Amino acid sequence: MKAAVFYGPRDIKVEEVEKPKIKDNEILIKVKACGICGSDLHMYKLNLFTPILCRPLKKGGIPGHEYSGEIVEVGSKVEGFKEEDRVVALTNGGMAEFIPVTIIEGLNVIKIPPGVTYEETATLEPLANSYHAMMKCEIPKDANIVIFGAGAIGLGIIQCLKALEVPVNKIIAIDLSNHRLSIAKKFGADAVINAKETDPQTKVMELVGSDPLSRMPIMQTPKVDIVYDCVGYMKQHKGPLVLQQAISMVRELTGTIVIHGIFEDTISLDMLFVIGKEVSIKGSFAFTREELEKSMELIKNKKVDRSQVISHEFSLDDAKEAFETQCNTDESVKVLIKP
Question: For domain 2-123+309-338, is the CATH number 3.40.50.2000?
Fold first, then answer.
């Protein structure tokens, strides 16, 4: 079968590899669509997290964990699934024509409802990440929310907030890509800020107002209740650290920062305002099975339109071009590879 095989930084080749043979507790999926995740880009550019992002081969590995497809073979001990079932599975190796999946009951495989496309469900995994991040903290009524990063996760948070009709005051999206910010606006962001063109702190304060710090009243802080950091830290980015900006931006005492972006290296962080404003910082990673199912329901019931997140589709033969396109944030959001 054909597969995209990753060997090292910016070295991915489409090759013929042995078609998998399944065990009694496995299913074989013919992959229909596979998304390129932000974590895949950390791997592609810097060879980070490769062991947990690839299905290993004797040489290299097959990436891809945001995929959907059709079951073409079922192991003798597998229950609840049959050939021709359309499914999403949570394993690595989706950038190939076929992928074997060990069934972990109630956890790693979910059926695709009628009327939902393979392309839409290839974006289910990032939507479930967005749902999980959104739910990491209690959202006060009429909250002002800032989302750093208008990629698939940040856009998904906007979609979840809108789909669930969370009663917020303002949703503000911040990014470096006008293309992605235009989609954020379309999805329901009340304001968007290009951090290359405008100082985010100043603009956010203009949009939501400010309060004096109770213990240092000569200083003002924006009335921001929650900041979602969907960026983390990328070595190539030379601007201010997003987490540092979030600490400065969130209001004192009740303000919360949720970090979902990945960090490519250790960072230096000034903690003064974390202490002085008594800010809460929470990590966010992956999702629960319940959140995965709820995210599928949002897609099924047309509460979110995931087709608008998909910016490009490539054949498996063009996997290298697909990765390079995903690296170009001025033009892409979610790039799919379709074996």
Answer: no
